[in-house]
């Protein structure tokens, strides 16, 4: 039977293994050849947890993942389990964190999840209102990254920023009109990057709470970057500096 659209399908060996540890899994789908050690370990863990296992032909997962790299294994989640925001806020080793203000397009959210995980971000925080939620569309756009990065929801972003500041975090908002360039500004640790929507940018109260406002230089005639692209630029600039610092180089 086809997998229900409202259910999230997570696929790939690493993503499935992470989902078994952190999510409520409804069913495991196996299309891989038997006697593959990594798959066999996942199957054994699913059996130990009492998770139903369904063996399906590879074409089934090809279709359900839109020919994603599923490695012959996938899980269907009951519901996505969000992280506790306080646990992220209390752990400066998770820097950088991402706060997303007004990102309502699930494709953008999924792309940000994928980029954030690839660049080593320690977590993502969403506001309860005016924001996309984790859905099957987000899971698909995240291309397997969803189980690997915690996502939390807070009632109010401005209040969350105040809490983070009390705990010693620096808050850096992105604003195309900011005088300070991302490439010419120190990025203190631990740091949180706040990304706004392409149309509205950061809301006034959120922007006013930031310790730093950073712009990404735009040399062409477009006014701004797609928010997932901008997120990648910011996170990889931070990663570049961290890597250089660890090697004893100057930025």
Q: C-alpha Rg, in Å?
A: 20 Å
Number of domains: 2
Q: Helix segment count?
A: 9
Architecture per CATH nomenclature, i.e. the level-2 architecture of the largest domain: 3-Layer(aba) Sandwich
Question: Order of SSEs, N→C?
Answer: EHEHEHEHEHEHEHEEHEH
**Total strand count, please?**
10
Tell me about the biggest sheet? 6 strands, parallel
The share of residues in extended strands comes to: 15-25%
Describe this structure in words.
With 251 residues, the protein is of the alpha/beta class. The protein has two domains: 8-79, 60s Ribosomal Protein L30, Chain: A (2-Layer Sandwich); 85-246, SPOUT methyltransferase, trefoil knot domain (Alpha/beta knot, 3-Layer(aba) Sandwich), CATH 3.40.1280.10. The protein contains nine helices and ten strands. α2 links the parallel β2 and β3. α1 (13-22) packs parallel to α2 (37-48). The chain starts with 7 loop residues before the first strand and ends in a 5-residue tail after the last helix. Mean pLDDT is 90; it is low at 1-6.
Brief write-up:
The chain is an alpha/beta fold and 251 residues long. The protein has helices at 13-22, 37-48, 58-64, 85-89, 106-118, 136-141, 157-166, 204-209, 227-246, and strands spanning 8-11, 24-30, 53-55, 73-79, 97-101, 123-127, 151-154, 170-174, 191-196, 212-214.
Q: What attributes does this structure have?
A:
single chain; 251 residues; alpha/beta; 60s Ribosomal Protein L30, Chain: A; Alpha/beta knot; 2 domains; 4-stranded mixed sheet; 9 helices
